[in-house]
Amino acid sequence: MDAARFWRVKRLEALSQEEWESLCDGCGKCCMVRLRDDTTDDVVDTNIACRLFEANACRCLDYKNRFARVSDCVRLTPTTVREIDWLPRTCAYRLVAEGAELPWWHHLSSGSRSTVHEAGMSVRGRTVPELEVAEKDVEDHVVVWPGEDDA
Length: 151
Prior knowledge:
The protein is α+β, with helices and mostly antiparallel strands. The protein contains seven helices and six strands. Strands 1, 2, 5 and 6 form a four-stranded mixed sheet that branches. Strands 3-4 form a two-stranded antiparallel ribbon. A hairpin with a 4-residue loop joins strand 3 and strand 4. The protein starts with 5 loop residues before the first helix and ends in an 8-residue tail after the last strand.
C-alpha cells in the first residue's frame, strides 16, 4: 500500500485519526455561516466566520473544545461527510468519499500547507467575524467561494 497516498487506497472509515485530520486542507469554508432557504431548501454560503475562527490561520481557535463552545458546530465523520449537503465541493473529505482525486493545491498533493491560500481556495482575508454582523444584515454577506461556482 502507498502510505503517501492513503486517501486513494483507504475508505474514510479505515483512516487513522492522524490521516483523517490531515485531509483538512485548511480552507476554512466549513467554518463559515450558511443560510438555508426555507422554501427551496437550497444552501448558500456567507463570508461570516464562526466566532472561534482565526481568520489568518484559517483554523479554529479552540479546536479541542469547539463542540462545547459552539452549539451548531458539526462533527465530521465518515457518515456525516456523506450526509451533509453543504460541504464545499472542494472539501477533501467530500472528494475522498466520492472517490475523486485531491486538487493540486491540497497540501497532500502539493507538499505545502500554503498552496490552498496561494491558489486562492481558502477564505483567508475574505471573512467577517459573526459577532460583528447584525442578524438583519446576514443576507448581505452571501458569497460564492472559489471552486464552488462551477456547480
